[in-house]
Design goal:
The complex is a heterodimer of chains A (784) and B (269).
Chain A: H1 21-25, E1 41-47, E2 53-59, E3 68-70, E4 80-81, E5 93-94, E6 101-102, E7 108-114, H2 117-125, E8 128-133, E9 159-167, H3 169-172, E10 178-186, E11 189-190, E12 198-204, E13 209-214, H4 219-230, E14 237-240, H5 256-268, E15 272-275, H6 278-285, E16 287-288, E17 291-299, E18 305-315, H7 328-336, E19 345-353, H8 367-386, H9 390-397, E20 406-407, E21 413-414, H10 419-430, H11 432-441, E22 446-459, H12 463-466, E23 478-484, E24 490-494, H13 503-515, E25 522-525, H14 543-570, E26 578-580, E27 583-586, E28 589-592, H15 593-602, E29 617-622, E30 630-643, E31 648-659, H16 666-686, E32 717-721, H17 743-755, E33 764-765, H18 769-783
Parallel strand pairs in A: 1-15, 10-33, 13-14, 18-19, 24-25, 31-32
Antiparallel strand pairs in A: 1-7, 2-6, 2-8, 3-7, 4-5, 9-19, 10-17, 11-16, 12-13, 12-15, 17-18, 20-21, 22-30, 23-24, 23-29, 26-27, 27-28, 30-31
Chain B: E1 7-10, H1 14-22, E2 26-28, H2 34-39, E3 47-50, E4 60-62, E5 66-70, H3 75-79, H4 90-96, H5 101-106, H6 109-115, H7 121-128, E6 132-137, E7 140-145, H8 146-149, E8 150-152, E9 155-156, E10 163-170, E11 177-183, E12 193-200, E13 205-211, E14 218-219, H9 223-227, H10 233-240, H11 246-262
Parallel strand pairs in B: 1-3, 2-3
Antiparallel strand pairs in B: 4-5, 5-10, 6-7, 6-10, 8-9, 11-12, 12-13, 13-14
Helix pairs in contact in B: 10-11
Classes of the chains: A alpha+beta (784), B alpha+beta (269).
Bound molecules: flavin-adenine dinucleotide.
Chain lengths: 784, 269
């Protein structure tokens, strides 16, 4: 029988229902906003109304002014610094509260404290600012112009970093039969977890300990950053992440607001809470994704992709944020643009430019969503130029299964898989032939089209990949502690944190797989730096590979110790003892693990003389066989209908074929893929955070910032392939971000398939009705 | 995003509400439009008087000619058929497409009309159905046809201290036809373009109304020409709004064409 199948399966591969669901679905989760402490004060921040200005004066109100704190009050507090070690990186310091200058709308200037948020906002209204407005840098394409005002005055141009790669480019293009050149844009977005950011800081005089309860997905990293900004020993800082209502990358970032709340809690010796509201979140918080590309694709007459040339600009905003820095996005563009394809030559230059906008932060998929958009639209453009079908040109150039493992042109090590097969399956599932027949017959005011995107996603990549970036954080061994409790249950401690990944379920399944303890008896302890091993946390689609591997290793070590004690109690040979269903068995004898635990903790007189003194608690560190990352991959296909009068795009059908390697819990994988795909559809069709020429954000409420809603989403069909990764413990691959990568490319390709006969080619997301109508009107003008 | 301090006044009846208005309080219906403005501190009234439970504003009156729906009746009550629908379902269908259910549970007919968002549903539907606003104020009551009540974007003919108490909706005659079409990209959004078409020959009411134009609803002067397809929606709109570019009106022309089609008036595009 297949691993994990059957109704009672609980181990690797089982569709076990989520253990956390009871808590979440009944509204019993506990988030930062649910925590109240006696004497607590709430913060409302005075934020910059201007994108770029000198802060000449700040007047605290006569009444309540002692509850208002500005930069000068933050004695001994350092700003946030996240430098990259890449050559040429220009360093910025993000002040906790703005000092001489403000660099984006929404930048915190003063913290106002009161018993309630409403009273704090009343106080904040009475703080007066004297700002001398400076010209704002709002357009990333012009940020590096010599006449552009400098954001950071010690810089020589508004760019954090420039990178360049060239792999045999000139030689490769000589045989090109066709060349296509395109400009692409992805909009600035604002990732939108249901729960915003928030924190509650408490200073404990007795322990001399600062505890920061924070909605974070990376508690240990926040702890390190916080200790550094505040000049505290790590031992004086504890970060607790309770239930976290979605993160998507935003909650991996150390925020100035957190440092400020922590400082004030220490200074005033009172609990201080800040809960981000949706307006702060949209204006100042979770910006992401703004890319511009100039891509030239070169192909031979038979469709072979010869080379790609790219210049990419990422609008990194005003500051380098901690810990991922301002350049991860653009620099990654250079290394991952080739996607799942083979090519002979490649050249790419990137710039991470600084503008008067909030710092750009990593959002699910990080650079991949933009890269996939640029690459996959280029593949379609080449196909049209060559008169090939989109599927044919892709099949011609995808890395073949026989070539795996494959080192691509930018030295990415694809670990395993059958990329062409994923495409073939999705082509069949979406019924391309049927779509073509319907297209031939269509008339009237709408057009249908079909589009594809194929990509691979590096996940769980580790030290060798990250040390090169030289950012404040490099993942190493991932650790887990497994402890058999006196009643035979298992306590599992991990440094990653779940913000929706179902780790309470999937890590328990891994324990079951290793040592047969029922997932219902596995207690996951996570989200608290005091209880868990150091970890860079939850990001980069790494948890199930890295924490899963660590849990397996710790469970195995613990299992070995359990077996030895059990063998002694059963008078059996340790090698004959097996662990399953909460029992240790040898031949015809068996004893419950609870008995083993009871012996170690409460009846040690019964232990063998040579018992391992480390007992029933094991910590193990884990790395994959090679730390270059697992590569999950997927093929997306979508059928759209475009209303020519409205410019409206409807998704008629959506199929995803994806390969997450061995699925620890297929239901959870589906959930990850669905959630990601919905966010990708948001990128494709709806989400956009526009700024005007003065650097003012124009979508400051959810009435203006459009998120995808249930009615926009078709019933997405997911088909699995399961090629185990040779690198990870069970063959699992990181899949957390995958869903969010493909939709903009697939949907834009489908819209272009629908509108190509009318002379329209869309190259910018989101595909709003306004953009489509404008393109249709332009095409009509050209035709006339 | 917390409102500036204000007083909240609950009153027993319309007289109490009128008195509160005379003292400077601002009326509050379901608070679905006002609430966000309070939270953003764009509205800073010193006091709010809650109209949502005022008995006179919660009543329904019926005659052979019309139905009067109290201003504090909610979108959801209309959607659910808890109040009579003189049009045999057109109101219910329109109500069911306003915002989403949480907003409909609280948002009121009167609040929506008094707020006079150019893109709001009742603003165009009630104008399109030739309804009349019933107002009560310090100097008594008066009746104003909706097309006159709505005077501009977010502007009405409500005078100081006046309350919108009810909307009188004429009963359509036999064989009357109706088309209401709006374009919103997502469920829960306001319309980007909308139009309503009423063809009620028995009662002599023909009306083509266009909404979401950033102004009060546009009631086209010569609906017959449109119904007879002598002019296209595009031409009709260009004539009615000569100051606007054809590109600006394209979406609205589409809305009008689709409303005509919904009313069964041929393929008028
Ligand atoms: C997310 C969201 C989506 C929405 N989408 C739509 C939509 O698609 N279509 C649509 O039509 N509407 C939409 N709305 C608006 C909604 O229908 C509101 O209910 C309506 O606009 C206002 O009604 P209210 O009762 O809430 O009025 P309130 O918000 O309480 O008041 C609005 C204004 O009217 C005044 N007022 C209220 N009642 C009276 C009265 N009886 N006499 C005089 N003045 C009065 C108030 O003083 C205030 O100025 C949406 C609202 C939200 C929050």
């Amino acid at each position: 029988m297949k691993r994990g199948a059957g109704p009672t399966a609980k181990g690797v591969g089982a569709r076990l229902e989520r253990r956390e669901d009871a808590r979440y679905l009944l509204g019993r989760g506990r988030y930062v906003g649910d925590i109240r402490l006696p004497g607590m004060l709430e913060i409302a921040f005075v934020r910059s109304p201007l994108a770029h200005a000198r802060l000449c004066r700040l007047d605290k109100p006569a009444e309540g002014g002692d509850r208002v704190f500005a930069a000068a009050d933050l004695v001994g507090v350092a700003g946030i610094r996240a430098d990259s070690g890449l050559p040429g990186f220009r360093s910025s310091v993000q002040p906790i509260l703005a000092e001489a200058k403000v660099r984006h709308v929404g930048e915190p200037i003063a913290a106002c404290l009161a018993e309630t948020r409403a009273l704090a906002e009343d106080l904040a209204e009475r703080v007066e600012l004297d700002l001398e407005e400076l010209p704002a840098v709002h357009d990333m394409l012009r940020a590096r112009d010599p006449e552009a005002p400098l954001l950071h005055e010690h810089w020589d141009e508004n760019a954090f970093l420039e990178t360049a790669v060239d792999r045999g480019f000139e030689a490769a293009i000589r045989d090109a039969a066709v060349v296509v050149k395109r400009s692409y844009r992805t909009a600035r977005q604002c990732m939108a977890p249901l729960e915003g950011r928030g924190c509650l800081a408490v200073w404990d005089r007795h322990l001399e300990l600062l505890t920061l309860h924070s909605a974070t997905q990376m508690p240990h990293i926040v702890r390190t950053g916080l200790a550094e900004c505040l000049g505290l020993d790590h031992g004086q800082v504890r970060v607790v992440a309770p239930d976290v209502g979605g993160g998507f990358g935003y909650k991996g970032i150390l925020l100035a607001e957190e440092v400020c709340a922590a400082f004030l809690a220490m200074k005033l010796d009172r609990p201080i809470r800040w809960l981000e509201d949706r307006r702060e979140h949209l204006i100042a918080g979770a910006n992401c994704r703004e890319h511009a590309y100039e891509v030239t694709g070169y192909a031979a007459a038979d469709g072979e992709l010869l080379a790609v040339d790219c210049q990419a600009i990422v609008d990194s905003g005003a500051y380098s944020s901690y810990p991922f820095s301002a350049c991860l996005e653009a620099a990654q563009v250079g290394s991952i643009l080739p996607g799942p394809y083979k090519m002979r030559g490649y050249r790419c230059r990137t710039w991470s430019v600084a503008t008067n906008k909030p710092p750009i932060l990593p959002f699910r998929g990080v650079a991949r969503t933009g890269v996939c958009f640029a690459m996959e639209l280029t593949m379609d453009a080449l196909a049209r130029e060559l008169g090939m079908t989109p599927e044919a040109i892709r099949l011609r150039n995808l890395v073949a299964p026989a070539e795996m493992p494959f080192t691509n042109i930018t030295n990415k090590d694809f670990d395993s898989g059958d990329y062409p097969e994923a495409l073939r399956r999705v082509v069949e599932a979406i019924d391309v032939q049927g779509v073509r027949a319907r297209q031939a017959a269509q008339s009237g005011g709408s057009r249908i089209g079909v589009g594809f995107a194929v990509f691979c996603e590096q996940g769980a990549h580790g030290t060798s990949v990250y040390h090169g970036w030289g950012i404040p954080m490099v993942p190493g061994f991932e650790q887990a502690t497994a402890r058999l409790t006196p009643d035979g249950g298992l306590e599992l401690r991990v440094g990653v944190h779940s913000h929706g990944q179902s780790l309470e379920t999937t890590l328990a399944q891994i324990v079951y797989e290793e040592i047969g303890i029922d997932p219902a008896k596995v207690k996951l302890v996570h989200g608290d730096t005091a209880y868990t091993p150091y970890s860079t946390g939850t990001w980069g689609s790494r948890c199930i590979v890295m924490a899963g591997g660590a849990v397996a290793a710790a469970s195995a070590t613990l299992g070995e110790r359990i077996r030895r004690i059990a063998a002694h109690l059963m008078q059996a040979d340790p090698d004959d003892v097996t662990l399953a269903d909460g029992m240790a068995r040898a031949g015809s004898s068996e004893i419950p693990l609870a008995e083993v635990a009871r012996t170690w903790y409460r009846a040690p007189q019964l232990l063998p003389d040579d018992v391992d003194p480390r007992g029933l608690e094991a910590t193990e560190g884990y790395k994959t066989v090679r730390d270059t990352g697992t590569f999950s991959y997927a093929a997306h296909a979508v059928v759209v209908s475009v209303d020519l009068d409205l410019g409206d795009v409807k998704l008629l059908d959506y199929v995803i074929v994806e390969d997450a390697g061995t699925m620890i819990n297929p239901m959870v994988v589906d959930g990850q893929v669905h959630g990601g795909a919905v966010q990708g559809i948001g990128t494709a069709l709806f989400e956009e955070m526009p700024f005007d020429a003065a650097g003012q954000p124009l979508a400051s409420t959810l009435a203006d910032y459009h998120l995808p809603v249930a009615a926009d989403i078709p019933a997405i069909r997911i088909l699995h392939m399961e090629t185990p990764s040779p690198l990870s413990r069970f063959g699992q691959k990181g899949i957390g971000e995958s869903g969010a990568i493909g939709p903009p490319a697939a949907i834009a390709n489908a819209v272009n398939d629908a509108l190509a006969p009318l002379g329209v080619e869309m190259t910018e997301v989101p595909l709003t009705p306004e953009r489509i109508l404008r393109a249709l009107a332009r095409a009509r003008e050209v035709a006339a | 995003m917390k409102p500036a301090p204000f007083d909240y006044l609950a009153v027993d009846d319309l007289a109490g509400a009128t008195a509160a208005l005379a003292d400077g309080a601002k009326p509050m219906g379901g608070n679905q439009s006002l609430g966000p403005m309070l939270n953003l501190r764009l509205a800073r009234p010193a006091a709010l008087v809650d109209l949502s439970l005022v008995p006179e504003l919660r009543t329904v009156e019926e005659s052979a000619e019309w139905v009067r729906l109290g201003a504090a009746i909610t979108h959801a009550e209309i959607e659910d058929g808890e109040v009579p629908d003189p049009t045999g379902g057109w109101l219910r269908a329109a109500a069911a497409n306003i915002a989403y259910r949480a907003v409909r549970n609280r948002g009121t007919l009167g609040g929506s009309l008094a707020h006079a968002d150019p893109a709001a549903d009742w603003v165009i539907v009630m104008t399109g159905l030739c309804a009349t606003a019933l107002l009560a104020g310090p100097s008594g009551t008066r009746r104003v046809p909706l097309e006159d009540f709505l005077t501009g974007p977010f502007a009405t003919g409500l005078r100081d201290g006046e309350i919108l108490t009810a909307v009188e909706i004429p009963r359509p005659g036999a064989g009357a036809r109706w088309g209401y079409w709006k374009y919103m990209r997502q469920v829960g959004e306001f319309a980007k373009a909308s139009a309503a078409v009423l063809v009620d020959r028995e009662r002599g009411r023909l009306r083509c109304t266009v909404g979401a134009l950033g102004r009060q609803p546009l009631v086209l002067a010569e609906p017959e020409a449109l119904l007879a397809a002598e002019v296209t929606p595009r031409e009709a709109l260009a004539q009615a709004l000569p100051g606007r570019s054809p590109a600006d009106l394209a979406l609205h022309a589409t809305a009008l064409a689709r409303a005509l089609a919904e009313a069964g008036i041929g393929d008028a595009a």
